[in-house]
Specification:
alpha/beta; about 40% helix; 2 domains; Rossmann fold
Length: about 240
Amino acid sequence: MISTVLFDLDGTLLPMDQEVFTQAYFSRLAAKLAPHGYPAGQLIPAIWEGVKAMVQNDGSRPNEQAFWERFAAIFGEHVYGDIPIFESFYENEFNGAREVCGFEPRAAEVVDLLAKGGRQLILASNPIFPAVAQSSRMRWAGVDPALFSYITSYENSRFCKPDPAYYTEIAEKCGFDPSAALMVGNDVREDGAARRAGMQVFILTGCLIDAEGRLDDFPHGDYAELFRFLAQCGIQPR
């Protein structure tokens, strides 16, 4: 019996080419930050270093702290005073990256089906973005953030995919049994790691990432296959 369903975002609920999206995101971020003393040639590598710090986080502090510690080590302590500029970017210019993303109407359909069926919904997008960016991308996908009981972000998470501890932390915070949970994602390595935390996994193949020859280890397919899989689990439209 599946009581909780976790969804990845990028490439799952929100179709995208990850490289194209990253380029669009970084070009807008660089344009925003350049006038404030962050030249693109230094900014982008520093952002990647901050991401690396979050991915390597051992749970000793929130991902947000891990990011800014590494970023400050590169640019100096003054970066903490510039955090409002970064927040403004995610609230405004970041939304321009929507134009390089696709749209899948069945994403909202499956979310609505599960919500109406009383399942707990969790947005399990890798928590390397602030909460405002997570919610914005959900809306780009036509999905209502209010339907989700928990949305992982760099503020509320202490681990990242593919560390199984990321999924274990969610289960502990949200109070559900991992064996009664399903993770839906498009990355075999990152989303498939939920199995090591005791969860079931379904891999959507529309924007498949990192299959590494292991796709057949998991139930997988397009949205039509996902709906069939849920029906087999007793989740059907009423």
